[in-house]
Sequence to fold (302 residues):
Amino acid sequence: MPEIRILPASETQKMLGRFSALSIEADKIARKYLDIPYGPSKRQKIDIYLPDEGDGPFPAIVFLHGGGWEFGRKSDAQILPFMPGLGRGYAVVAAGYRLMPEIRYPENLFDVKAVLRWIAENGAAHHLDAARVVLAGASAGAHLAMVAAFTHGQPAFEGAPLIKTSRIAAVVEQYGPTDFLRQHAQYDESGYPRSYAPDEEPAVDRLLGVRAQDVPNLMHFVSPIHLVHPGIPPILIQHGRYDPVIPYQQATELYEKICAVCGPGRAELDISETLTHADPGYAEKESVETIFGFLDRAVQAK
Fold:
């Protein structure tokens, strides 16, 4: 077995803090609706950003921030890779959701479902097209985006009666966890550095309130890779090969599973040889063109 290499905590914190130095400059966006509540909690709010021109309805990119289900805000700069959508005919919706320790899974998933129901009920009044919604997320937010998309229309995952909801036209997931029980084995296989030791308590254990490895059957309702079925929407999977927080095989194995279950063309895989976790490089031109090339094919062509 390869030697276990742990990234120093100072390097991990520096890596994760890169987006915090950036801003989405919301004051420069002319048309927007801020802090719209979709539930009673102070975190159950959305910000809607609209293109400068046109009445829409615009396809809506709903972005879910990362932060280990414990940190982060809807105003975080992690959303920057998607803000160019405003110049391409998309609305961008920054969605807040409840965090640990206030909640445990699946309450944060239920928040995402509530956002989708809110758009179905209220989107038209805010120039949003509820029939063309993209779920996008980074890290923990990517996990929630995938689970919400892969369980779309399944009442047990709604948290409320399913009467009316949006249509999910596509998913963009950036460096999200897809199979919680495989992560350390994947680092062992590659020999790449990781940011945490095998005996450290993972965030998913705190999210669930139990040790994930003690309840492997429960993970069929938590890990996106187990929720893949022939009806899932198209998905773009972005990840860095040397990501020390989430191993890159989380992306490649999900891609292989989707191809096996759904056939070719349902998933697109973008593995970067240079970008790591929470990397501002995902907001640079090459990555942005990959994102919107995918979305234009999956959403705008509908």
The mean pLDDT is 96.
